[in-house]
Amino acid sequence: MGAEDRSWDPVSAMEEATAGASNGNAPGVPTVPSSPLSIDISLPLPEMKPYIIHLLKTLFQKWSSLDSSCFTIETVSGGITNLLLKVCVQEDSLNESILTVRLYGPNTDLVIDRERELNALPYLSAAGFGAELLGVFSNGMVQSFIDARTLEPSDMRNPKIATEIAKELRRFHQVYIPVAKEPQLWNDIFRFLKKSEKLEFDDDEKQSKYEEISFTEIHKQVNELKDLTDQLNSPTVFSHNDLLSGNIMLNDSQGKLYFIDFEYGSYSYRGYDIANHFNEYAGFDCDYNQYPKKEAQYHFFRSYMKPDNPQAVPERELEALYIETNTFRLASHIYWALWALIQAKVSPIDFDYLGYFFLRYNEYKKQKESCFSLAKSFLSVSDSA
To answer: Rounded CA gap, 125 and 117, in Å?
Structure first.
């Protein structure tokens, strides 16, 4: 079917997510319309269109009497987890509304905590991050349309843009989300590890490659890395956790930067969020030689730590954040390596997720010695001081 009822109730979920607004935790957080309808993401767009129109008429009463011809729908992107649609609604001869409909990909609930995402979205939206949240339904959401371009990986290496990203990331890390503040990074990694070590593939070649993986070794690496990062006392902040170029938009004429797509957002470690962003300098070609050098990292850190006076950041604080970030660099590789293993089993998208696992895990092993040595040397000096 194109649209159907599901057992999950987004109406109740949104009431819970926005309850904090009524007790003063986050004034200005609006309640948004919700629907239990679900859209079949596997349908071709022409067949999906009437279900999308029906959904929008259900969510937004002001459009309930409009003819279907008033709705224009086109695909914006088909990412590796979502399908994004741009919808233009001709309300009358003078007024047109433009919005986006985001449809969750199949099986993404295995790697994305949708409840966690939904709890955070109203607060992030109220704080001015991403598109405005307009409505939710069983397997997606409706948001305002952002008039901006998606960044390319090379844009993130531009010092001027890097400065703006750093400032915006600092602001993002200061958003209050009324949920438990415990960092979720290691919980997520261990959850991924548990799922990924019990997979079976119908394809013999994939199964053979999968059996080359030593999960005993990965457990050892994860525990060793966790023990080391725990000693760094990285501050807990609400983190984006997926700040690649495709999740940053820029309106060049206004100089306005937007963070989007908060599916992986959670309370986590400051150093991890920054390191994960730096890893994404590698771009879609996964060229980790593009990982920023120390000078470029310090440029980013200065704008992150003191946006109004970046040159006033003490050297010792820059060094500490440098160590923190470049140790969590390893955690980013492990996280996405394990994520890729699960996707290799469940995703219908034609992408070599299994190969991506080996690429990220091999990069972890390549960088481990230097990162561990740097952190241990720093901790040794700090203890002696």
So the answer is: 12
What is the H or E stretch that residue 267 is in? strand 266-269
251-263, pLDDT tens digit by residue?
A: 999 999 999 999 9
User: What is the CATH topology of the domain spanning 150-384?
Assistant: Aminoglycoside 3'-phosphotransferase; Chain: A, domain 2 (3.90.1200)
Written as six digits, the tokens of 94 are 């003078």
C-alpha span between 206 and 344 (Å, rounded):
9
Which tokens is 1 given?
Answer: 């079917």
Which residues, in sequence order, are CB contacts of 208 under 8 Å at separation 6+?
none
pLDDT-derived band at 21 (thresholds 50, 70, 90) equals: very low
E-strand stretches of 41-147: 71-78, 82-90, 96-104, 133-137, 140-144
Domain residue extents for the chain: 3-145, 150-384
Would you list the DSSP string of 281-305?
Answer: GGTTTT-GGGSPPHHHHHHHHHHHH
- CA gap 154, 282 in Å, rounded: 9
Question: E strands within 46-175?
Answer: 71-78, 82-90, 96-104, 133-137, 140-144, 149-150
Name residue 324's amino acid. Answer: E
For the sheet with 82-90, list strands across it: 71-78, 82-90, 96-104, 140-144, 133-137
The pLDDT of residue 25 is: 46
pTM of the model: 0.89
- The CATH number of 3-145 is 3.30.200.20
Cβ atoms 137, 59 nearer than 8 A? yes
